[in-house]
Amino acid sequence: GRVDTGLLARTLPIGTKTHANAHRRDACAPLQKSKSKRLLVLFMNKAEIIREILHSLRQDFESRLRVSKTTREQGNNSESRAEGKYDTLSIEENYLADGLAKQAESAAQAIAIIEKMPLRAFTDSDPIDFGALVEIQFARANEWFFLAPVAGGTEVTCARTTVTVITHESPLGQQLLGSRAGEKIKSPSALILRVV
User: Fold this and answer.
1) How far is it, in rounded angstroms, from Cα 56 to Cα 155?
2) Strand segments (E) across the chain
3) Taking 70 as the threshold, does the pLDDT of residue 194 lie above it?
4) What span, in angstroms and rounded, lies between the C-alpha atoms of 135 and 138?
């Protein structure tokens, strides 16, 4: 019979090649509107969204680390050696490599924190906290956000729906933390539709 790759992806250890392949075959289930299935489907989607966030962070880490190594090698090779006191190419490339290495380290720390976050189901009456998936109705469109302590600004797409990671340090995150579904936020003016 047909293998349920969704179940396979959710039971295999995160980070393994088998898990990653199963996950890629199991595209996120659509965000259904049926109230009877909504919470279960959204909760399952949250697990997929977290995997997508981790996948994005790992790609960012690997990319920055690779570029950092390449830049450092270029800064230290014989062609980059200073030919005069005003020739700073080597110094500049090493500064750039240091900056990229620090960004890669930040991405690695974000991965570790997200991996340790418990997968928690929220109800509309629960105060919003880390791990909440929140739908907000703005004047022109509805948007989904995932509240986390790190990785702010990371965007992932699940079932043709974009989810943006926000932290408690962002202006929007500060307003959401502790709020509940049905409440309004002031800046920008919006309504919290649902919390999962």
Assistant:
1) 8
2) 133-137, 142-147, 155-158, 161-166, 184-185, 190-195
3) yes
4) 10
Backbone dihedral region for residue 145 (phi beyond 0: left; psi -120 to 50: alpha; all else: beta) = beta
| Pairwise CA distance, residues 173 & 187, whole Å | 11
Instruction: Label residues 160-184 b or e (16+ Cβ within 10 Å = b).
Output: ebebebbbbebebbebbbebebeee
Q: Which long-range contacts (CB under 8 A, 24 or more apart) does 98-103 make?
A: 98/68, 100/64, 100/65, 100/67, 100/68, 100/71, 101/64, 101/65, 101/68, 103/64
Using an 8 Å Cβ cutoff, are 181 and 194 in contact? Answer: yes
The token pair that represents 63 in the structure block = 């990319």
For residue 56, give Cα distances in angstroms to 16, 43, 60, 108, 137: 15, 20, 6, 11, 26
Q: How far is CA 77 from CA 82, 86, 89, 151, in A?
A: 11, 18, 11, 34
SS3 125: coil
Phi, psi of 75 (to 5 degrees): -70, -20
Instruction: Give pLDDT tens digits for 91-133.
Output: 677 777 777 788 888 889 999 999 999 888 898 899 999 999 9
